[in-house]
From TrEMBL:
Belongs to the asparaginase 1 family. The lineage of its organism: Bacteria, Bacillati, Bacillota, Bacilli, Lactobacillales. The keyword Transcription regulation does not apply. GO terms for molecular function: asparaginase activity. SUPFAM superfamilies: Glutaminase/Asparaginase. This is Asparaginase. The keyword Ribonucleoprotein does not apply.
C-alpha cells in the first residue's frame, strides 16, 4: 500500500460560494475531509498546513512547504500531493521543482470552481493528483501539476485563463502525460532536472515587463541597495526599447544580475536582433538570456540561485537555459 501525504494550503479548491455568489475561504478545508478513490491501495495522510488564497503565498511560505516535504521524505513517504490556489500555483510548483531532491513524486493541483459550485473540479483534480503520486512511472519526473486530466511539468506549465477549468497549459511543449483509469500515462519527459538546495530566501528580486515606449523610470526606481536581482520580460525574441537602456546599464554597474525572457506566450528569448535594444546588444551589456521560462518562473529561478549564493559564471549557467 502506498502512503501519500496530502498537504493542503488553501485556494479556491478549499473555498465555497456564499449566498451572494462570492467565493470566500472556509474555516475548515472541505476537500481535506473527502475520502478519495483507491481505498485499500492508498494510505492518505492529511496535513492542513496553510489556509491561504494563493496571492498570499510568498517565497518564505514556499520554503516552509519544501521543508515539510523533506521531513515527509525522511519518514519514508511514497508521494506528496499539494492542493494550492491556482493564481500562483505554477510559481510554488517551480520553486519546489528547483529545491527538492528528485526522489518521490510531488504533485500540485487546485480548482477553478469552489467546493460547492456546480461543476466543481476540485475533488476530481485532487483524486487525479493522488493517482499520479501513486503511479510508479511518476518517479523521477520532477514536480508535476495535475489539472483537468492532464499532467504538466512544474517548469513549463502556466495559467492561461482567468476562470476556465482548462486554464493550465504548457506552451510550445504541451503536457507530458494524462490521467486515465486512475493511473498516470506519460508520453514525454524532461531531458534533465536540476536541484538547487536553499535554507532561506532573499528579498529584492523583481520582475518588470517591457512595453512600447517604456523608459528608464521603473528601472531607476530599482537603482538602490535593496535590489538583488531583476527579470525583464522583453519584447518579441528578447528586445527592449532604447530609452530604457541607460537605466538598465546603471543597474548592471551595481552588479545586479538581470535576466531577460520574452513576454510572448510561445517561444524562447534569443539573441537575434543587432540594433539598439536588441537581444544581441543586451547580451553584450551583460543581461542573461533565459530560454524557455516565462517571467514569473525566471524570477523564481533567479531568487533560488541568489539564495543559494550563486554568482558570476555559475549564476549565468544555472539561470540561462531551462530547456536542457
Amino acid at each position: 500500500m502506498k502512503t501519500i501525504l496530502a498537504i493542503h494550503t488553501g485556494g479556491t479548491i478549499s473555498m465555497s460560494q456564499n449566498e451572494n455568489g462570492e467565493v470566500v475561504p472556509n474555516s475548515e478545508n472541505p476537500i481535506a475531509k473527502e475520502q478519495v478513490i483507491l481505498k485499500g491501495q492508498i494510505n492518505l495522510i492529511t496535513d492542513n498546513l496553510f489556509n491561504l488564497p494563493s496571492p498570499h503565498i510568498t517565497p518564505q511560505i514556499m520554503l516552509k512547504l519544501k521543508q515539510r516535504i523533506l521531513k515527509a521524505i525522511t519518514h519514508g513517504i511514497d508521494g506528496v500531493v499539494i492542493t494550492h490556489g491556482t493564481d500562483t500555483l505554477e510559481e510554488t510548483a517551480y520553486f519546489l521543482d528547483l529545491t527538492l531532491p528528485n526522489t518521490v513524486p510531488v504533485v500540485l493541483t487546485g480548482a477553478m470552481r469552489s467546493s460547492n459550485e456546480v461543476g466543481s473540479d476540485g475533488l476530481y483534480n485532487f483524486q487525479n493528483a493522488i493517482s499520479i503520486a501513486a503511479t510508479p512511472e511518476s518517479y523521477g519526473k520532477g514536480v508535476l501539476v495535475a489539472m483537468n486530466d492532464e499532467i504538466h511539468t512544474a517548469r513549463f506549465v502556466t495559467k492561461t485563463h482567468t476562470t476556465n477549468v482548462d486554464t493550465f497549459r504548457t506552451p510550445t511543449f504541451g503536457p507530458i502525460g494524462i490521467v486515465t483509469q486512475h493511473k498516470a500515462k506519460y508520453f514525454q519527459e524532461l531531458i534533465q532536472t536540476e536541484v538547487c538546495d536553499i535554507d532561506h530566501v532573499i528579498e529584492g528580486v523583481y520582475l518588470l515587463k517591457a512595453y512600447a515606449g517604456v523608459n528608464g523610470d521603473l528601472f531607476s526606481a530599482l537603482d538602490n541597495e535593496k535590489t538583488r536581482g531583476l527579470v525583464i520580460e522583453g519584447l518579441g525574441a528578447g528586445n527592449v526599447p532604447p530609452q530604457a537602456l541607460p537605466a538598465i546599464q546603471k543597474l548592471l554597474d551595481r552588479h545586479i544580475p538581470i535576466v531577460l525572457v520574452s513576454r510572448c506566450y510561445n517561444g524562447v528569448a534569443q539573441k537575434i536582433y543587432d540594433y539598439v535594444g536588441g537581444g544581441i546588444q543586451l547580451e553584450k551589456m551583460g543581461l542573461i538570456l533565459c530560454q524557455g521560462l516565462n517571467g514569473q518562473k525566471a524570477r523564481i529561478k533567479l531568487l533560488v540561485a541568489l539564495s543559494n549564493g550563486k554568482k558570476g559564471a555559475q549564476l549565468h549557467e544555472f539561470v540561462s537555459n531551462a530547456i536542457s
